[in-house]
Amino acid sequence: MADQDNPPVFQIQRVYLKDLSLEQPNSPAILLEQEQPSVDIQLGVEAAPVADGIYEICVTATVQTKIKEKTVFLVEAKQAGIFEVRNIPEDQMGAIMGIACPQIVYPYLRGNVADVINRAGFPPVHLAEINFQAMYEQQQQAAAADTALAQ
């Protein structure tokens, strides 16, 4: 229960594109291939304190398409948000950093990834909707299993 003098605070300060790279190492020859490329997508979430009650949450995506073993294109993107989070019980902070914040940042990442791929001359790759709650719970279970194995 939050006391009246210190109400809970959760607000976004800023969303920004922290890092973006596009590589087409086998162009232009690979562009003449008729075969359908395979697509591999990796996602991640990072949280770091910036100042007292201020946190940076980064959602990263790596999209790599290949024909046989040759890369068609590789996009690496990191979308970040700065959040003010104060007077929240410690047991709820993990869920805020791992679920609530990434849900706010992720749509910006999806748009930027689709846009850069489209601007590179390819049909856009639309990242799927992500259930950050399920992803967070899965990470928590894996961490608990690792702790149990270590003992």
Automatic annotation (TrEMBL):
GO terms for cellular component: cytoplasm. InterPro entries: SecB (IPR003708), SecB-like_sf (IPR035958). One of its GO terms (molecular function) is unfolded protein binding. Gene3D superfamilies: SecB-like (3.10.420.10). Its main location: cytoplasm. It holds the Pfam family SecB. It is found in: Cytoplasm. PANTHER family: PROTEIN-EXPORT PROTEIN SECB, PTHR36918. Homotetramer, a dimer of dimers. One homotetramer interacts with 1 SecA dimer. This is Protein-export protein SecB. It comes from Acidovorax temperans.
